[in-house]
Amino acid sequence: MSEPKKKHESMNHKMVAVILLTGLLVACVPRQNQPPPAPLMPDCPPHPTEKIAGLVSRNQSLQTGLASRDAQIVELEKKSADQEIQILQKEAMVNELNRRVNLQQKQLDDAITEVVRTKSKLRSIESKAETASTIAEAEIAVKSMRGRVADNDPEGMEAFLKAEQLLKLSTREFKAQNYGGALYLAVQSKNQVRNGDRRLQVRSDGAPVAGEVAFDQPLLLKLTRNTNLREGPDLTRNVLITLNAGAAIIGYSYKESWIRVDTEGGLTGWVHQTLVMAR
Asked: In terms of residue numbers, what domain contains 195?
C-alpha cells in the first residue's frame, strides 16, 4: 500500500473515533429538569353582565308595579267602604221617611184624640189651676229645648216638634175647658222634652272633633267582628271597651273612615267603618 493511501485511511479512522467518543460524552451528560407544561385553560365564554343587568332592571320594574297595584287596591277598598256607608245612609233616610209618612202622623193623631176623648168623657177632677201651671212649665221646657237642638239634628228636631205640637193641643183643650185632657197633653209635652234631653245627654259624652260630619239620619248598624270602641277617630286613642261581633250600635256622624256611635249600654265612641254593616 502506498504511503498517501495509508495516511488517508488513518485519518478516516481517527475521525470515526472522534465521532463515537463525542456521542458517548453527550449520552453521559445528565439532562436538566424541564418545567412542567402549562395547564390548558378552558375556553369559557365571557361573564354575561348585560343579561344580569337586564334581569335586575326587570325585577325592579316588577316590584314597582306590585307596589303600585297594592296602593290601588287599598284605595279601592277605602272607596268601597265610603260608598257602602253612603248607601246605608241613603237607605236609612228612605226607611225613616217612609216610616214617618205611614205611621207617625196617624199614630200620634189617633192616640191623642183617643186620650182626649177619654179624659173628657170621664170628667176628670183635675183643677184648672194645676192644669194652667203644668202648661206654663211645658211652655218653658219647649222653648228651652228649641235653643239646645241643632238644625242638623233631625232626631232632636223631631222630638222638639212633637213636644211643641202636644203643647198646642193642650192649650186648645184648656180653652175648651177640658182641663183633664189639657193636663194630660201638657204632661206628655214635658215628657217629650225630657226624652229629648236624655238623648242629647248621651250624645254629649263625646265632644265634636275637627272635620266631624253628622249623618242626615242616624244609622242602625251592627259590628261584623270583635271591635275596639275608641275615644276618638284614631288607632292611637284609648280603647273604652271591646264590643263583640254582632253588637247593635247607632251611627250619628263620621270623620274620614271613622264613625261616632252609641252602644246599647249608653257608651259613645268611635269605630272604623270597615267593621260595621247595616242591621
From this structure: 124-203
